[in-house]
Amino acid sequence: MINEAKLHFKIADLLNLDSRNVTATVRLLDEGGTVPFIARYRKEMTGSMDEVQIIQIRDEIERLRALEQRRESILNSIETQGKLTEELKEQLLAAETMSRLEDLYLPYKPKRRTRATMAREKGLEPLAHFILAQNNASVFDEAEKYISTENGVSSALEALEGARDIVAEVVSEDALVREGLRELFKRSGIIKSRVIKGKEETGEKFSDYFEWEEKLMDCPSHRLLAMRRGEKEDVLILDIRIDEEEARHLIEKKFITGRGECAQQLKEAIEDSFKRLLQTSIEAEMRVLTKQMADEKAVNVFADNLRELLLASPLGQKTILAIDPGFRSGCKVVALNKQGKLLAETVIYPHEPQRQKVEAEMIVLAFCERHGVEAIAIGNGTASRETEQFVRGIELLPKSIPVIVVSEAGASVYSASEVARDEFPDKDVTVRGAVSIGRRLADPLAELVKIDPKSIGVGQYQHDVDQTLLKNKLDEVVGSCVNAVGVELNTASKQLLAYVSGIGPVLAQNIVEYRNTHGAFTSRKSLMEVPRMGEKVFEQCAGFLRLRNGVHPLDKSAVHPESYHIVEKMASDLNCTIDDLVQEKELRKKIQLQNYVTETVGLPTLKDILNELEKPGLDPRKSFEVFSFDENVHEISDLREGMRLPGIVTNVTNFGAFVDVGVHQDGLVHISQLADSFVDDPNKIVKVGQKVWVNVTEVDVKRKRIALSMKGETQQVRSHKPAIAEKKEAYDPNDMNSALAALRSKFKK
Length: 749
What we know:
Mean pLDDT: 92
Low-confidence stretches: 716-734
Distance between the termini: 89 Å
Largest sheet: 5 strands, mixed
Number of helices: 30
């Protein structure tokens, strides 16, 4: 039986936490509590742990339980074999890691047929023990005793060879030897990379690693993953090497105690064991270990970038004109209402080869007038800068309508997805792509959850890392962001609802179907009428769902329904309504939180409630700021060394940050150029979506490489907040032809 209390104490000691809080957190997780719910609504039980700490506890308890289960399995296996001594049992019970457990189990683990197995079948195991004991008697005289035609041993030399095979296996299965070599690999192992002869041209992208070596444990995540990709593509050969003399000395020190014939035989067996068994085995372990470490770092970088992208500032509920730019095929134009619903679509051809600029201007203006457009979103793909320049150049376009370039990352994936087909079954991919561009300006989080996080393009080597690890981590980040912001129950898509604490895809679909059948929800409590919505799920999700016009005034807030009675009591004690508490600061000041503390509700929850009363359902994301690229820069050929440009960080990696300066090709700010001081982690300096000033240090037009620097730059790009256009009724909103006719008249004048 696993001693859970012992595991909780271990975790508390490891993470420097109170063991009682760890125990409570583990219990909540075991009961089906989600990380966002536990962090937000069970602070009294956890000691106000944040999501990071709760995730650490969750991962550590899973690791320790797996370790204990494996320990029990190993103990049972060895005991069944009748080989479990008290000393071995103590060693197994004291093992703190999976590798130590497996090392101890290795000699007793069922094996495939090996050279040592065959030698044992020939009856040579006693001779192997004779060698290991390093007796002074002649090993050759002893070996002659094992010559037997029946056992297939024709000479003393053959007997000694078989005995050495057994000794080599014994050496390779020694737990102390394996741990020593493991530490040697970690301490001084060198990873070497070289190109396969004849692959120099086809593998040119890996040219940095044609002849490369460095300390294994110093090799950064991105470099290791790059070399492993080169190996996978049959361009590179990778080796991990250690000082062999030091390795042999380590083993010999453990086994050789004399200088006689047995010692010489033992030395030969150790050489064979190291070369044939140990070196390849431990190197394979190191490959797995370093790959896991590289994966974790790469996945964490991806997760950090994704979080910044998902929590990017939303423009909010505005009527938006979205343009998916293009040259020959034209620019797809769509109008979206405040809820992101598609109102109208068309195509304009302002660029080469058609150059229908005047007609395109009229259409844009007509759309703006007809639909009361409050902002224009332009995708940042092909023809983006040309389209932006075209739109900004429309003289009659009200200056109050901001023109904003929006990242298209993942839009093409969405437009061809099943989600997009369900939303717009009768529209082609270009219309769907334009809609996605407009919606992600209004609310990046709500739109990006419809796309596989791997397709958003803010990671490094995402196709090379452990895909299960990546998916779980990214799903975790998306869920964390969705629950941090909160979800409007009556307008959220099923994709967004699926990430709400406790809900999932099936229940999200049920909620949408119920909403479509019965109309808008009027209260959080009415969620209980949705099929498969049980008490436990309601507990997990209710606090993260918002109802702007709910029956209960707290339905629009992050106050959990389980705490409504507390606020009602507060209002009653002050002889006012809950709405009065929300609207009047002086009333809130009169609340004495200590009066509402109970066995289950403490000050952390009460303080959260008070904060919510101040600003119910406040969006934690930053307010939106309009950004513009340099008007004189459109192509990479426009760049010159020494230029100072505004840019947006599009990706952060271990080796630096990529910045979009508006030339269809991101530039790289190497980690050494991020700041005037030493930088060990780019994420400490920049974040995805951050607006920065950069200096151009090198331009390679042929290879499409731009080197940038942020040295000497301390200020982010400051931009004005978007002015929002007032809707005009100058044209008949239902007649596009009349709008175009009126605009033509304006142009003639």
